[in-house]
Amino acid sequence: MIQSLTREVKRHSNLARRKRGKQAIEREPKQQKSQSCDSRGYFRDLLEALPTAIYTTDANGRITFFNQAAVEFSGRTPEIGSDQWCVTWRLYWPDGRPMAHDECPMARALKEDRSIRGEEAIAERPDGTRVAFMPYPTPLHDAAGRLIGAVNMLVDLTDRKKAEEAPRLLNEILEQRVKERTRELTKASTQLHESERRFRLFVGGVTDYAIYMLDTEGIITNWNSGAERIKGYPAQEIIGQHFSVFYTPKDQQEGLPQRALMIAARDGRFEVDGWRVRKDGSRFWANAVIDAVHNDSGVLIGFAKVTRDMTERRAVEEQLRQSQKMEAVGQLTNGVAHDFNNLLATIIPNLELAQFHIKEERVGKYLEEAIRAAERGAQLTNQLLAFSRPQELITEPVDVNQVVSEACEMLPRTIGPTIEIETVLDADAWWAMTEPAQLELAILNLAINARDAMSAGGKLTIGTNNIAHGYRSRLPTIDPGDYVAISVADTGTGMSEEVRARAFEPFFTTKGMGKGTGLGLSMVYGFAKQSGGTITIDSELGQGTTFRIYLPRAPHRLEAAGEAGDQSLGNAGPPSRILVVDDNSAVRTITAVMIRTLGHDVIEAAGGEEALDLLEKDRQFDLLIVDLAMPNMHGDEFAARARELIPGVPALFVTGYAEPGRMRTKGDVLKKPFRRAQLAEKLRSILRDATRRIGRDVIGHAAAGRRLERRARGQRETPGSRRQ
Predict the structure, then answer these.
(1) pTM, two decimal places
(2) Where are the alpha helices (DSSP H) in 540-672?
């Protein structure tokens, strides 16, 4: 804009001089003088109307003109004919050093007869305030090429400096300034006769807004660079067309462009958000403002239109709304699933205990089927909990083939009948260290992603295989070790390189607005990393996609509840005294019953405060079994306070989910619902370790006692007796 303004001033000055020279030959002196005065007055009015500080000097540097913006910029009124080179009070270099008067950019432009560009300076006003600015001094020449003076424009850099110091405020400042400039331009268009040139000077450099003028019929009369960037049309192609070309076919049929002009003409302004169409046919979400433009007599002469591309902002707002909706659903799901988990934590142990009292084989089978169904319900509940809130994984040896098989039973109802499901499972696949519910949820997310890529149907293949430590070429960047790979392959549309690079980013999605949160693949990626593995993508456009989850191999297989029963139930650790703390009475009662059947003594408490009161009177406990999520006092908070009363007492936390960042004390974790064999295994492990630790403490205390005794005997001996 600055260069355009300078060129326009110089061009019109030269044209005026040549015109006056020609008129000197053809017209009378009086006529020449009148026209010259008119021309000078015209340009004087033009410069006065500009909001930027501008002044001129003669060839000797004496100021010959300044506009009101220059007075406001410098904080003083210069003296015409006496002030030389500068309208400002004092000048400084950008580093704060005083600038000599004859070193100012205007002085050097006149002395060297050249334009000065790209040099900043600091002006000090009489009131002591300072402002950084960029000068644009340009020498002026007459028709013969002789230096006759110069024009300078001072651009205030205060906003830019503030933006450099506070980038976050830059967008707000620029947006406000653009809005103000847009209003100024709309007002100026009703007052200036040469609207196209004024438009180019003021808004030609604005690129974030499409700003253009319409005549009274809606025909485009001018066009800025922002309009070309946003809508894709160059000025020479779009000027002269009706602005309805930017509307969708449906809006055109409904007469929305004509209705917008009618409302703007009636009310003076029309603003709307909606879809608009670019030259290439793509759509963008726009905020459009149409202001009516009237001449001095109040007659409508056209419209000023300002359009802003709001597609990205709308997408962010939509993602925020979707995220809030998912958070609300998650909170509801979390409450229901956690309560259901507590019910299962009561049902499964009661069914299991009932088996011991049933002699009839048929009834025993019924009970076993009921237990299996309840355990399947527990798996579904864990999936709901995994969906509803972020969790820390509680890893354990997992049979990946079994998890894949169980997930595939549910997939047909999820991905629909048009997709064929095939499993290619390695019969000798190792077990993996992970959490089964989270693995099943990851497979479900990948299957849903594959379904969306196969809208016309296709084939989904899920497989497993072992990756041994020696086959490094088959592994991605990952820690050394053995891994189990779970692959999910589809015959869908595939991914471009750009989409593959961003596939695991939270909220990134290629689906239409409102059709996806962009969180599914990022959740799978987080699960794989938390498990100590990784995930990769192999995909090409039109060739389908294959995801591979690499999970670390488990050091051993976890015995099933039935297999472990004979070993665990017969040995649940040495007989011990155990305190069970749980606010749910049904879960607390059945837990205590199971512990008693395993040969231990149990005391129950309904909450943290009640348990602490009990420990104040009775501290003879070998183990604390504590519900992690209790009202009023969190489980690990209770354990920490309990260890102040019973130092070193072990704790076993039971919970339906793991809460990130809440575990402040050490302890084993047993997930609800659990079977009697799982409880026995935990008790055996914890109480065995506790016994060993106590044994080491006893031996250590005995050794320390013997050392003290020897030292005491040595002190009682006399020097004479030691010499004997």
Answers:
(1) 0.42
(2) 561-568, 585-597, 608-617, 635-645
Q: Burial, 571: exposed, middle or buried (Cβ in 10 Å; 0-12, 13-18, 19+)? A: middle
Fold of 392-558: Heat Shock Protein 90 (3.30.565)
Instruction: Give Cβ neighbours of residue 176 (< 8 Å, ≥ 6 apart).
Output: none
Rounded to 5°, angle at Cα 175 from 173 and 180: 95
Pairing of β 545-552 and β 534-539:
antiparallel
Reported as half-sphere exposure (CB side, CA atoms, 13 A), residue 544 has a value of: 13
- To which H or E segment does residue 523 belong? helix 520-530
Rounded CA separation 62/83 (Å): 6
How far apart CA 219 and CA 303 sit, in angstroms, is 10
Q: Where are the alpha helices (DSSP H) in 57-215?
A: 68-74, 105-112, 158-165, 167-189, 195-203
Question: CB–CB of 602/578 below 8 Å?
Answer: yes
Distance CA 387, CA 437 (A): 10
Four-residue CA torsion sign, 47, 52, 58, 59: negative
**The token pair that represents 663 in the structure block:** 């575990």
Asked whether the bond before 673 is cis by omega within 30 degrees of 0, the reply is yes
Query: Can you state the percent helix, strand and coil of the chain, rounding each to 5?
Result: 50, 20, 30
Residues 387/441, Cβ–Cβ less than 8 Å: yes
CATH 3.40.50.2300 fits 565-700, yes or no: yes
Q: Are 398 and 482 in contact (CB under 8 A)?
A: no
Rounded Cα distance, 45 and 40, in Å: 9
β-bridge partners, 488: 462, 547
Joined together, the tokens standing for residue 444 give 């479900």
In Å, what is the CA distance from 638 to each residue of 113, 334, 336, 581, 713?
85, 24, 25, 9, 46
**In whole angstroms, what separates CA 469 from the centre of its chain?**
37
Are 56 and 64 in contact, with CB atoms under 8 Å apart? yes
**Mean pLDDT, consecutive 10-residue segments, the chain of 724 residues?**
53 50 50 57 75 90 90 89 83 92 89 91 91 92 91 87 68 76 69 58 74 93 90 92 94 94 94 93 93 92 92 79 66 70 81 78 80 75 59 79 88 84 91 88 88 88 86 62 92 86 73 58 82 88 91 73 46 87 90 90 92 92 90 88 91 72 63 85 83 49 46 46 36
The amino acid sitting at 594 is M
**Residue 125, token pair as written in the block:** 């006003």
The pair of three-digit structure tokens given for residue 20, joined into one six-digit string: 């006056």
Q: How many CB atoms lie within 10 A of CB 84?
A: 19
Fold of 2-164: Beta-Lactamase (3.30.450)
Token pair of 718, please?
A: 């006399």
170-309 classified as CATH 3.30.450.20? yes
Sequence-ordered alpha helix ranges (H) in 113-166: 158-165
- DSSP for 202-231, please give it: HHTT--SSEEEEE-TTSBEEEE-HHHHHHH
- Cα-Cα end-to-end distance for the chain: 111
